[in-house]
Amino acid sequence: MKAIWNKTVIAESNNTRVLENNHYFPADSIKDQYFKPSGTHTTCPWKGEAS
Question: Over the stretch 2-28, which tens digit does the pLDDT of each residue have?
């Protein structure tokens, strides 16, 4: 499975987890140069905190 944004592969893994038709990539499968830490957090009752 590949995550593509603006014709660029930003994550790739054969080991995604599918929940409600959404693929979740393992942290080590993302290409760090396209991501940065965020001070903003959201909380989902069943997925937990995300940032």
Answer: 999 999 999 999 999 998 899 999 999
